[in-house]
Each structure stands twice: as C-alpha cells, then as structure tokens.
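Side project, low priority. Logging it here so it doesn't get lost.
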Amino acid sequence: MSFCHLHTHTEYSLLDGSNKIKEYVKRVKELGMNSAAITDHGNMYGVVEFYKTAKANDINPVIGCEVYVAPNSRFDRETSHGDDRYYHLILLAENNTGYANLMKIVSIGFTEGYYYRPRVDFETLERYHEGLICLSACLAGEIPRYIVRGFYDEAKEIARKYQDCFGKDNFFLELQDHGIDDQKLVNQQLLRMSKELEIVCTNDVHYTYESDAEAHDVLLCIQTGKKVSDEDRMRYDGGQFFVKSEEQMRALFPYATEAIENTQKIADRCNVTLEFGNYKIPKYEVPEGYDSAEAFLTELCEKGFREKYIGCGEYSADELKKIHADMDYELGIIKTMGFIEYILIVWDYINWCRTHDCWVGPGRGSAAGSRVCYCTGITDIDPVKYNLLFERFLNPERVSMPDIDVDFEYAERYRAIEYVQQKYGHDSVTQIVTFGTMAARGVIKSVGKALDFPYAETDRLAKMVPQELNITIDKALQMNPEFKGIYDSDARVHEMIDMAKRLEGLPNHTSVHVVAEAPEDDPVEQEDHHAVAQLRYAVGKAQRDQPLVDAPVHPELHKVEGVVSAQEVAQIDDARQQLGQSRGHRRAPHAQIQHKDGDIVQYAVGQTAGDDRQNCQTGIAVGLDQHLHVIGDDEAQRERGQAPEIIDGILIRYALCAQQHGERLQKYENEDGDGQADARQQHDVLREQAIGLLALVLSQIDGDDGAGTDGEDDADGEQHIGERYRQIHRCHGVFAYALGDHQPVHDGVQAENHEGCHRSGYEMQKL
C-alpha cells in the first residue's frame, strides 16, 4: 500500500466525529493499509485508546491533532476576527519528542489560549515544533482561507512561514476533495505552490463508512441543537467524509500521484512509542534529619502507632505486637512496589489542609484497610477494629497505582490544588478527564428530537428501554417485545432507532473526575462540568485574592473595579463561555464564593440603552453572605432543583459589565452625532454580555426545568428557559433579586406585551 489516512477525526472530536476508534482501525485493516492517523479537533482524548487498538491490529498509529491557531496571540480575546478567530492546522508526531511537544501544544491551548476553542499561536508552534510534521489542514486552514479570498501571494508567504518553522521536509500542503467548489480552487493554487513546497492528499474523515453520512448529519444536529429539517444549519454536504480506500483516493487525485505516495512516506516516518505501567511519581523532599523517604514514613507510622494504638488502651500486648508486625509488613509492600513517595505526598497535602484552615475529609475507599494510612492520619478508621483488608488497597500480585479518595470543601479546594502545584510543579499536577456518553435512552431522545419526532413519541420509545446497567438498544429490543414490535412494524421508528444505534456510545461531553454527574442515560444536552469546575476555581481564587469591598447598599451603581483582577476576569469569562457552549439544561455543581463577612452585600445594576420601543432598565440586586443563601432554606431548595449558590461567580462578571455600561452611558449622554453613535454601539455590546450572563443565571436557577421525570429531558422545560432568555433580551421583564424573598429569580419575571417594556426602573431592596 502507498496511501495512509493522515487527517482523521474519531469519536473524540466530540459531537463532530462519529468514527468509532475500533471500527476505524478495523476498516483500515480491511482496506489493506498498514498505518492510520488520529487528528481530533483540539484534543488528544482518544490517543491512548487508538494507540492500543492500532497496535493490537498491527497498524502503525500516527499520533496527531488538528489544532486551532489564533491569528495573533493566543491571549487575544477580541471578537472582531469573525471566522478568522482561529485557523485549523494538522500536527503529527514523528517521534517521542514530537509527541511530548504535541502534548505541550495542546495543553497550552486549553490552559492559556481557550477562546471558543483551545487555541495556540505561532509563538507556541515555534517553541515546540521539534519532532512534528505539519499539514496545512482543510478549508478552515489559514492558507486555504487566504486562497479562497484571492490572496495567493499572502497564502504563499504564510506557507513559507510554516515551512521555516517546522523545516523543509516537515511541512506539507494538504489537498482535499469532498466535492466542494472552494476545494477545487484551493487545490489548483496549492499545486501551483507545490513547485516549491511539498504536497500531500488527505480525506477529512469524520465517520467510518459511506453509509454513516446520514447518522453523522444527525450528530451535527445534536451538537448544534438543530433539526434535520432546518435549512440554515451546520452540515457536511456530499457524503464524502468517510474512510476511503487507496483506489478511491487515487481516483480523486489522478493528477497528484506524488501527493498520494507522500502519505505513506509520512506515516513510515512517524514512530511513537507509548510506555504503560511505569509510574512517574514526583520526588518527596523529606525534612532535615532523615536520610530517606522510607525513614520519614517509618517515623510517621511509629508516631501514629503510639498515639492511636498504644495510647487508646483497647488492645492487649499480643494484639499490639501483631498490629505492629502487620504495619511493618505493609511498609515492606509499599516499599517493594515503589509507592513510599506516593503515600508521603498524600499525607503531605492532607496534613497541609488540616493545618491551614482548608477543610478536608479523611482518606476513604480501599485505603481504609491500611494500618500505614491510619497511623499517618491519612484515614480515620481503625482497620483492625473493623477487620479491613490491606490487600484491597495494595496487592503485590496486581501491580497498579494505589487509590486514596480524599474529599475537600469545594469553595476552598483550589487552595489545596495551588499548594500541590507550587510544591511539586505546575507541570506535575493535573486533573483527570472523564467522558459522558450517549447511552440508550438518551441517544433515542436526542436522535428523535433531531429528526423532529414528537416529544411524547420519543419519550415513550426511550422509556421502553429497561433501566439496567450497561443496557444497549439491541439488548432492549431483545428484552422488550413491545419495543421490538414497534421497531419492526413502523418504518419511521425503525429508521430512527437504527440511526440511534449508530450513534450509541459516542462520547458527548467531558467532566472533571470526580464530580456529581447525571445518570448516563440522560440526554446529550448536559452541562460541561469541566467548565463549571473552571468557573468555580476562577471565582473562588478571585474572591480570596481580592475580596468584595464592604459597602452599604446604595441606589447608585457601585464601583466594582478591583473586585477581581483582569486576569481573573478573563478566566471567569472563559469559563462562562465554555459553560454556555455546553448547551446543558440540567442542574450541575455551581460556582460558589465563600466570604468571611456575612453582612457584605454586593449588587449590580445593568442599564440597557435600547431603541424607542425598548426603554427600560434591567437590574439585579444580590447579597452575599458566607454561603450565599439566596433562595431560602438550602436543603429545601435543593430538593426543588434550585441550588443556593447559582449566581455568585457569574454575578461578579455581570457587575463589571454593568459598571462599564453605566460609565459609558454617563460619558456620552450629553453628546450627539458620532459620540452618541459610538455610545450606542458600546451599549449594545455590553448589553449582550449582560444578557448572556443573566441567561446563564436563569438556566442555573431553572435547574431541572430542562429535564423531566426520571432524569429525562423535557422539551417544555427547554422551551421555558429559551423564553426566559428572550424576555431578558426584549426587556420584557424586570429581574430583581433579594435575599429575603425565598423565591428564585424567575418568579420575579413580569412579562409585558410585545410592544415594549413599560417599566423604567427597578426596586432595590436592602438585604
């Protein structure tokens, strides 16, 4: 074979790729290819699974990613670039150095450059280019975009820039043909450039088989919240985004034989080796007076043994002797398996939390069976008293990392994370991602919605799926005769269920391990818990670094400058944008600010400058006490799906937005002409920001309004939330919030007629 797919999106291009890794590798094997690549959008979520699956099938795994490149700096948050907010670029790891650099590039995109997408910039590429092969990407790449606009010379200069960055033999112009007119134009100009630059042919794979085109189209509708019948929606026309054979690719590019053969040459150059089972634990710096980590851990255990066993008076001398021997045995196993440093690290951050007013619970899980953990204070339960087994925690017959679960008070958790980062290095500390998938019930409802099935019908079909662990649609058809009967007799339902089966099991969102998560058979429209966690972290850090100013409630807009730094504002804003993009309607963990002064009241007023029909003010008054009891009794409100901490972090950002809005209004209120026009434009931008924040607040307050009974999606609830947003946008209501009201914000909505809002102000209440 002389062709290899180098531009491939798998199921981990979330809600954009339906190309399941196992099916993809199987198909590549069937087509006689010896190599295949993975280049998911902006992430490397599927790399390990793909690597293992490919190796198991004697396929050379080419590890890559389609990154998003910011036109200027990755820190630039300006929205004026429009479609040019970011460009696509394919990066392939040639060796382990390239793999390490690719991981750094992708990580920087998430941690530093996230704006709608995890973006990097040219400075990042220059710094970490070693060991990477670069392709110019699809029509969304920088070079194709300039060509489409008629700027050939500029496109050529950009190509040379990338060639200078990655090296002459490491940059390739990427030819694609999916029947799109713009691609024919781009290919002509890329061939013109190929006299000086290398070229390669790719197929922008998003699904495995040609027959999957329709199911993938439905997936795009699920991603964007559209229906198949909607004319103005995202779609991949032509049905050509599948895993093609070499013969099919040669038929597409009879004029570019060299470009076809270059794919195999590139694949042969890419040899990344991933190492598994070799745990790289950070080194623990022992205090002075100890010559090794083992000696320090032994001393901690001896001290704890004296306090917790000898000192308790519950055990005889013989029993104490046996307990001590068992503790020594555990220490030996821990040493043999190489986990002494791990135990000390866990002890270290637990001990730090306990001595720095950061609430932390005891270690739990299988670690409770360890006498070492008990004596060091990692756990609080005596394993001897309850006959707990150490072998469930560590077993020399099964070499795996120990797992000690530790709980932190979430408003202060960021402090523990910061401590660990500072002590062991930011590059040595990370949080673990988990993936929510489209399970049987959820995928039926999502597909039914995209195909414009009546909600009642999809709800009925989804409930025919038994509530069993690991249930699938195929199993449900076998177990439920009624479900099977409808499937066999109704052609519409048969087609919809078959479509759902093709999409079943695809990952649809990410979460941070461990967080409270909805059941896996919930609909796909779930909140991105990673974004929630980021929002919570950013707000909590900002609140601690620069607490709110103690000021009495006043009818005028408070100056909130200095509440958070510019960097923290950006972090909060980015997290909000991520959360907003998740399209979730279910209640998830919310941001919370904890403040020591329970009497502090913070409020913000947003003044909307609209046209003659829309002349009103939208205001919010918020109070912050130590736990932000904004809607009455905590437990009672939770039962109703209304979390008491819903608006804290979001409102800090809203306050800043409202302040800017008011300042610009005052500055230009007496001007006319250009000054007034400029003021109106700035007002509109700020108003949209405030509207978005308010809408997010309402979606959080509505909680389970977007979900029906038994954890199912409720179309009426979704419509309800959408109407709330429209009411804010049209200024058809006044939203006020007071601590003493025991009612959520949406109970204060007073809808007016469609001709405008007749309220000119709001009532501010002293909280």
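Brief comment: Residues 515-537, 543-569, 578-649, 694-767 have pLDDT under 50 and may be disordered.
Revisit when time allows.
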